[in-house]
Amino acid sequence: MNWQVYIIVCSDESLYTGISTDVERRFDQHAAGTGAKYFRGHTPIRVVYLEEGHDRSSACRREAEIKKLRPVEKRRLLTSAHNRLKS
């Protein structure tokens, strides 16, 4: 399976990092309140970062790496060559 690492920006400008095989479906779950508990207090706005080509193991490792970054470093990722979104 092709796992993806994604970052969602929330209404309070916070960033949430996660993994999925179907980011659109997962975003819809977050928006509906059936995804991660994080979104009980943060309204998801849109996916702003997407990394493709992972298996589950590498996606989990990459997610953990990104979650350890400082907010300014996460925001740098949004404009990096790793981002597969054209926004």
Describe this structure in words.
The protein is of the alpha+beta class. The protein has three helices and three strands; from the N terminus they run ββαβαα. It has a single domain, classed as GIY-YIG endonuclease. Helices cover 34% and strands 29% of the residues. A hairpin with a 4-residue loop joins β1 (3-10) and β2. The radius of gyration is 12 Å and the shape is globular.
Task: Explain briefly what this protein structure is.
The chain has helices at residues 23-32, 56-68, 71-77, and strands spanning 3-10, 15-20, 44-54. With 87 residues, it is an alpha+beta fold.
Question: What is the strand and helix layout of this fold?
Answer:
Layout: E1 3-10, E2 15-20, H1 23-32, E3 44-54, H2 56-68, H3 71-77
